Amino acid sequence: MRQNLDLRVHDRVALDESELYAEMLSAVAAAERPLTVAEIDMVLGVRSAEAGRRALMTQD
Questions:
Q1: For 16-46, what is each residue's pLDDT tens digit?
Q2: What does DSSP assign to residue 1?
């Protein structure tokens, strides 16, 4: 067993992934219908918010 292991060191990638997962779960929980690809992209920050809003407007 390692005696000098620093437990304060975090895996930044894993923490970022967990945050994205939580954001996605929140968005799904708040939605009244399945999310579109454009909405998922917006939640994940893949597209700009404006592109996501335009995609939502074209679906109604």
A1: 888 999 999 999 999 999 999 888 988 888 8
A2: -
Query: Would you state the structure tokens that stand for residue 35, as one six-digit string?
Result: 């999310």
Q: How far is CA 44 from CA 7, 12, 15, 40, in A?
A: 29, 17, 14, 6
Alpha-carbon distance 52 to 39, whole Å?
Answer: 6
| pLDDT value for 35 | 93
Total residues belonging to the chain: 60
Domain-wise residue ranges, the chain: 12-59
